[in-house]
């Protein structure tokens, strides 16, 4: 024992000596717990009066006897043998549950005795404690589930629709990249499903049970980008949260962080991102470096190689991100997949649009397949949603599609004898849609143009083309 330990014990003895004996006895013999103290041989030195409730009829006669003779079921002797404390053990004595703690008493590292306490005498109090613990555990489970729902992957590889070689190749890259932790760069036009692929990579990886944190680099103000990504310590800057804030990288620990629109990341932050990816270490504003375990998935619709040449994107960061590249084709190159995608969206949207729509007519499908789709898969989904809202039967007809889609279909077909019937049907469908829209808008042409998704001038030309010269409504 060190001199410091001896001094501390001496100070404690002085404090105890100052306490009145009556107070010390009241502490040991309080009605809320039962206490027994034994020496190193198990001889009872003290026993509280409440032990009468479990069969010790003569407390005074028990003093000096071995605890095994007085309380045969007591395990205090086990603590004397092992020297290990047993805290909050549940025992069943005399038809009741009790919570027991047994602690060795040491002096100079040697066991000189032990103390046993029966805590919360009434079993009802144990049940109350169990209720509180169960309630707290339930709350913890609930908040963990909520947190997991916030930072989780929503899509798997099964959500990637398509059988064309380019899509199958991209799906194969998802499966390969999910087995390793190297950075992934997903490239493609806006609306091609880059985020869906990022979700699928995380969902197939060993990190799937940990957070999937999404960051849109184009939507965060430049001056807030660093604190959003890396976080900050309390008082790091004026107006900061007094408790500090975790950054997106910290929230993605053990999981994946998806940096969407990475081409919009400010040039001055690119070195810090590069260091974070290379060293797996981030530094909060006003704080110290922190080691983390995360996987980076980035996406962009911009040409990063051109940005490198223009010196608006760092070459070393580009190489670090572009370890695995998944290039997504635009929808106009996936004509053979449009039908599968359209039916996929049809079934998916039924969750929000409760209509018993079972099919898509040949004319409507031909129109979908012949559209250029500048907005890619996102535009197709929006188009299917509008068509389902317009549809009054069980089959989506060509008249349920937006007007701009009919226009594109008319331009696509040359004026040959084989296509005249189709073009005539399309023109009638477009005229019908315009008339129905004017009815809905009660003749308000500005509103009708907005509903149709075209400019008011464009609507005027169509009215003239189809001979709708007056407002009959």
Describe the structure.
- The chain is 45% helix and 17% strand.
- The protein is built from 20 helices and 16 strands.
- The strands form five sheets. Strands 2-1-5-4-3 form a five-stranded antiparallel beta sheet. The protein has a five-stranded parallel beta sheet with strand order 7-10-13-6-14.
- A hairpin with a 2-residue loop joins strand 3 and strand 4.
- Helix 7 crosses helix 8, helix 17 runs antiparallel to helix 18 and helix 18 crosses helix 19.
Helix content range of the residues, please? 40-55%
From the structure provided, what is the oligomeric state, counting identical versus distinct chains? single chain
| Top-tier CATH class of the largest domain | Alpha Beta
CATH superfamily of the largest domain: P-loop containing nucleotide triphosphate hydrolases
Report the strand count: 16
Number of domains: 4
Give the overall shape, derived from the CA principal axes. elongated
Compose a concise summary of this entry.
The chain is α/β, with parallel strands linked by helices and 473 residues long. Helix content is 45%, strand content 17%. The protein has helices at residues 3-18, 21-28, 59-62, 67-70, 76-82, 123-150, 165-177, 194-204, 225-230, 248-251, 270-279, 304-309, 315-321, 338-349, 362-370, 376-390, 403-412, 417-440, 445-452, 456-465; strands spanning 33-39, 44-47, 86-93, 96-107, 110-119, 184-187, 212-216, 231-232, 245-246, 256-260, 281-283, 289-291, 295-300, 324-327, 359-360, 395-396.
């Amino acid at each position: 024992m060190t001199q410091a330990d001896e001094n501390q014990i001496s100070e404690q003895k002085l404090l105890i000596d100052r306490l009145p004996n009556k107070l010390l006895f009241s502490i040991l013999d309080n009605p809320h717990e039962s206490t027994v103290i034994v020496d190193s041989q198990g001889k009872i030195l003290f026993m509280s009066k409440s032990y009468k409730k479990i069969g010790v009829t003569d407390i005074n006669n028990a003093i000096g006897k071995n605890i095994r003779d007085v309380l045969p079921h007591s395990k205090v002797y086990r603590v004397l043998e092992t020297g290990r404390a047993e805290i909050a053990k549940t025992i069943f004595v005399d038809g009741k549950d009790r919570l027991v703690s047994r602690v060795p008493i040491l002096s100079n590292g040697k066991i000189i005795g032990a103390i046993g306490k029966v805590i919360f005498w009434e079993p009802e109090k144990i049940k109350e404690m169990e209720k509180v613990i169960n309630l707290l555990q339930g709350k913890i489970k609930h908040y963990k589930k909520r947190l997991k729902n916030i930072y989780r992957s929503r899509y798997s590889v099964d959500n990637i629709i398509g059988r064309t070689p380019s899509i199958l190749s991209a799906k194969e890259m998802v499966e390969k990249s999910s087995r390793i932790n190297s950075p992934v760069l997903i490239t493609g036009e806006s609306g091609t499903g880059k985020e869906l692929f990022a979700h699928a990579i995380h969902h197939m990886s060993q990190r799937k049970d940990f957070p999937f944190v999404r960051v849109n680099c184009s939507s965060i103000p430049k001056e807030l980008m660093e604190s959003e990504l890396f976080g900050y310590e309390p008082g790091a800057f004026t107006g900061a949260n007094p408790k500090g804030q975790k950054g997106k990288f910290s929230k993605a620990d053990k999981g994946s962080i998806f940096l969407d629109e990475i081409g919009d990341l400010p040039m001055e932050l690119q070195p810090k991102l590069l260091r974070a990816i290379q060293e797996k270490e981030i530094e909060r504003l006003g704080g110290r470096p922190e080691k983390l375990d995360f996987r980076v998935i980035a996406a962009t619709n911009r040409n990063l190689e051109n940005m490198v040449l223009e010196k608006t994107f760092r070459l070393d960061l580009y190489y670090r991100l572009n370890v695995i590249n998944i290039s997504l084709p635009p929808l106009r190159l996936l004509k053979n997949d449009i039908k599968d995608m359209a039916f996929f969206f049809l079934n998916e949207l039924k969750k929000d649009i409760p209509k018993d729509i079972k099919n898509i007519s040949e004319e409507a499908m031909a129109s979908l397949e012949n559209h250029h789709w500048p907005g890619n898969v996102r535009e197709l989904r929006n188009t299917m949603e509008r068509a389902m809202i317009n549809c009054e039967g069980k089959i989506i007809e060509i008249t349920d599609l937006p007007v701009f889609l009919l226009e594109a279909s008319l331009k696509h077909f040359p004026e040959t004898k084989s296509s005249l019937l189709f073009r005539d049907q399309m023109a009638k469908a477009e005229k019908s849609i315009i008339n129905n829209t004017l009815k809905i808008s009660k003749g308000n042409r500005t509103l009708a143009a907005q509903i149709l998704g075209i400019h008011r001038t464009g609507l005027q030309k169509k009215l003239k083309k189809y001979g709708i010269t007056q407002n009959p409504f």
